Amino acid sequence: MTPVPALTSVPALTSVPALAPVLAGAAACLLAAVGLRPVRRTVPYLGGVTLAAATAGAAVAIPGLPDRRVGAVLLAAAAVALLGLIADVGRLPLATRLIVESVAAGGVVLCGVQVTLTGDWLDGPVSVMWIVAMTNAYGLLDRLGGALAAVAAVTGAFLAGTALVLGDPFLAVLAAALAGAFLGALPYGRARGRVRLGPSASLFAGFVLTCTAAALTAGRGTAVIAAGLLLPALAAVVGAGAYAARRPRRSGQARKAAPALCCVSAGTGTAGLAVALGWVPAGVAAAVTAATAAAFLSHACLRRGRFPVVHPFHARRHRRDGLPARLRRDEVTRGRPVGASVRASSGEASGEASGGGRQRGRVPPPRSAGNPPPPYVRRG
């Protein structure tokens, strides 16, 4: 008589944590879709606050009493979302923003969400710096049209699956709720090809996703920690590097970045699931991800012009004042001002053609007070 209740109770215990992330994601998606429509018409600045409320409501209501880590992450992320709202409405100094984000990250670290690389007191500052850096990377990701919502939805879904594989249903519910909320935000704000959710939504998503990844890797090996931190952050790093290297000023350029970053996020999420299941070594995944991020960032720095490289055979193509580089160098070595011979020869030729060698017309006014105007030339 005793084995029968045990066999019947095991599926019930195992099905509730598995269905809770799905229910949380569906509830958050519904809340975000219903709440964003009137909010974006009346007060567009409150779109990120609506997404944060939908995520928190679904993450708390579905599983019941949340975990200590989940509660700390939601409270700190709410403070960061409020900070983003202030930055969206008015101006906020960078130092104030970094201080508030560091305090919020420090509160989360004190509640047990931290990067345990060394097992010493250095883990706290490293965790705070990592959370703040990735949160601001997602803030830059919002400037690429549609990329934030897509990357947050895909990354949150894969983090929820990874949390279920690792046996942490509370973090799975949190990640699934975030994914559902940003999935419900995709149809809104597509005016002129852009989906701008604001700094509040971007900072909230970056903070929650980074803290979820750090909590999933806490207490594990060094290779697993490196893979678990780098894989979810690769899409944000690539997007932030692409925006910093070449800021898209047209909506078409911004739209092209969203599908690529979504594919990057899906690939890294699949790799994270494979690492959690033990199909792929964690050290290999971490090394490949770090090499990819380093190569892309170096390429972005070169495109930005921080390390300009000009081939000597291409030096003649760089022109200034209408003169080739070779002629400009010859005139400087002779002690003559740049372009003087060309201007003198062109002036003499025009004077001879006009007859008498005198300049006709009014002399243009000087461009600065330190450059006195030439004498007025009377008409011939």
Automatic annotation (TrEMBL):
Localization, per the record, is:
Membrane
Alphabetized UniProt keyword annotations? Membrane, Signal, Transferase, Transmembrane, Transmembrane helix
Could you tell me what this protein is called? Uncharacterized protein
Query: Where is the chain membrane-spanning?
Result: 12-36, 43-64, 70-87, 148-166, 172-189, 201-218, 224-245, 257-277, 283-302
Membrane topology note: Multi-pass membrane protein
Biased amino acid composition, Pro residues: 363-380
This protein's source sits in the domain of life called Bacteria
